[in-house]
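ok, trying the design again with the full structure, not the truncated one.
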């Protein structure tokens, strides 16, 4: 058993815990944040931080943890990923190709971009695409969608789902695929979306604390969307060191859930202006330390009237940029004629291709 005094918590919080009779981490495991808040006279945020600290050290506390079962060789890990972990298609063949098949299950992906560029549209598309049956190359899963901005539009989801069902029905060639289409309908797609509305960072942290139990009870969930993290963490925060600590804890939770529950975690982030070399430049919000949290970072940006998606952080993919469009059916490849036109040399311009890339963000 591990004493509460050994946890990485403030002295005042430790005193409150011990005074309330909580001496060991095992005393705290079964408690919910609100219950701990009342019993130990803690704020809800302090209660969340305590339970998160307990969960972080939880693996080996009781001495019966799975030491041997947790050990895998690199070959076994590769075989596990090849056999069990698949990708969620985006319905943009070019972006899927750049990502090696789509957004990987078991990893965290951040989608950055300015307002109106299509971050939420891609999230809604993925919430539908994760449910594509395996016989069509999908993962046949469910999705937990955490909305912090109020941008989840049901009618838009219905439009994207309708287009997805129509697309797969046109591809159905054998009996397995035709049978799968009987249960891949707009109604079943909507019923497999678990929507959560969070209004501030405390609600978001509380939801993420409870989420592992929900995922255990719903093993078909293969996607977690948080749209967006930046919205709740950029407001009402005077203590930036506290924000950084909470964001680091949140990042570790998301990484742990992605790997232990074999889900794809997709987070959206906003953009902010930062001075570099005396010049203002748009960069992803929440600071550089947060930038190390996601496995993959996608930047959606404008290049003139064109929408572009750039992979600018990924350990397994080359940096690349593709063009896409938002249609009534959802997130799609850009029109081929438009792409050909964009590749032709332009006349009467002094701006180089490199400078166009620099200013498009």
């Amino acid at each position: 058993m591990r004493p509460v005094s050994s946890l990485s918590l403030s002295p005042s919080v430790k005193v409150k815990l011990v005074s309330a009779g909580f001496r060991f981490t095992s005393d705290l495991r079964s408690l919910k944040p609100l219950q701990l808040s009342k019993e130990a006279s803690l704020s809800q945020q302090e209660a969340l931080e305590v339970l998160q600290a307990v969960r972080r050290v939880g693996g080996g506390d009781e001495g019966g943890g799975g030491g041997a079962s947790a050990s895998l060789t690199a070959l076994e890990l590769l075989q596990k990923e090849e056999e069990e972990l698949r990708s969620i298609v985006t319905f943009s063949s070019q972006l899927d190709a750049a990502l090696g098949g789509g957004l990987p299950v078991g990893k965290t992906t951040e989608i950055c971009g300015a307002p109106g560029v299509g971050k939420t549209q891609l999230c809604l598309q993925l919430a539908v695409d994760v449910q594509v049956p395996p016989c069509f190359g999908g993962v046949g899963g469910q999705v937990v969608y955490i909305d912090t901005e109020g941008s989840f539009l049901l009618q838009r989801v219905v439009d994207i789902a309708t287009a997805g069902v129509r697309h797969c029905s046109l591809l159905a060639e054998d009996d397995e695929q035709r049978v799968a289409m009987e249960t891949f309908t707009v109604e079943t797609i909507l019923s497999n979306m678990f929507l959560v509305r969070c209004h501030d960072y405390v609600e978001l942290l509380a939801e993420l604390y409870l989420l592992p139990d929900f995922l255990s009870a719903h093993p078909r969930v293969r996607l977690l969307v948080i749209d967006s993290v930046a919205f709740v963490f950029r407001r009402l925060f005077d203590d930036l060191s506290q924000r950084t600590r909470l964001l680091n804890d949140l990042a570790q939770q998301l990484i742990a859930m992605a790997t232990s529950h074999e889900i794809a975690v997709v987070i959206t982030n906003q953009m902010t202006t930062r001075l570099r070399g005396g010049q203002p430049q748009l960069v992803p919000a929440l600071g550089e330390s947060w930038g190390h949290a996601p496995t993959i970072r996608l930047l959606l940006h404008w290049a003139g009237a064109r929408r572009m998606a750039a992979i600018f952080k990924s350990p397994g993919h080359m940096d690349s940029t593709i063009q896409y469009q938002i249609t009534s059916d959802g997130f799609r490849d850009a029109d081929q004629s438009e792409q050909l036109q964009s590749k032709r040399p332009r006349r009467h311009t002094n701006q180089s291709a490199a400078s166009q890339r620099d200013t498009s963000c």
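Keeping the full-length input from now on. Residues 21 and 327 are 58 Å apart (CA to CA).
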